[in-house]
Design a protein that fits this description.
mainly alpha; Arc Repressor Mutant, subunit A; 4 helices; sequence-specific DNA binding; DNA-binding; HTH_Fis; Trans_regulatory_Fis
């Protein structure tokens, strides 16, 4: 099993628990919820692993440095 598969399984398990917790209620804005829950820790880990270097973090993430800066601001993550 690849590391990607392990990560996908973790997401599936988390979503299964989310639906269990919802019970009969209908989910709303799932996309936004998942993206916000995932994006922040990904940004934080990239910044930690790059030693706070935005150029290295953006390369690691496959996004431009400008995009990284916008996302850090949006999530109120200090660079």
């Amino acid at each position: 099993m690849s590391k990607k598969d392990v990560l996908e399984d973790c997401v599936r398990d988390s979503l299964a628990r989310y639906f269990e917790d919802l019970g009969d209620a209908e989910p709303h804005d799932m996309w936004e919820m998942v993206m916000r829950c995932v994006e922040r820790p990904v940004l934080e880990v990239a910044m930690e692993r790059s030693g706070g270097n935005q150029s290295r973090a953006s390369e690691m993430l496959g996004i431009t440095r400008n995009t990284l800066r916008k996302k850090l601001l949006a999530h109120n993550i200090r660079a």
